[in-house]
Amino acid sequence: MNISSFFNIFRWRDRRGERVESTDANVYIADVAHPVLDWSESGFRLANYDESPANGERFAFRFELPLTSEDIFEFEAWAEVVDNSDRGLSVHYLHLDEAIAARIHEVLRVLSILDPKVPSGAITYD
User: Fold this and answer.
1) What is the pLDDT of residues 33-79, one digit of tens each?
2) How far is it, in rounded angstroms, from Cα 103 to Cα 126?
3) pTM above the 0.70 mark?
4) Residue 125 within a domain
5) Torsion, CA 126, CA 93, CA 44, CA 84, rounded to 10
6) What is the domain count for the chain?
7) Is residue 112 in a domain?
């Protein structure tokens, strides 16, 4: 194990859940859409882009994921960059309120990521 891999263990130790690959989700930063490579209950990863924020930088974003042709899961929050490298731009959410955190958990659950026994179409936004 090289030294950078060793330090990555500490960097990702607070990650909640596994990251889910995404093909449809987008994150909007300053009203510009960036395709999401993967996401989880604790953050997401984007491909690097011109002017992407540096490690430790914080920014506001809006996350959008079409669930059906009529239903879009979306939320707004702040994030902090934990890694900006050739692997992409990895961030973790900052200060999610309980309602947003619960919605993220429920969407991941329904997508059969956290609990594969949950049937499709079981999303509630209570």
Assistant:
1) 999 999 999 999 999 998 999 999 999 999 999 988 888 999 999 99
2) 9
3) yes
4) no
5) 170
6) 1
7) no
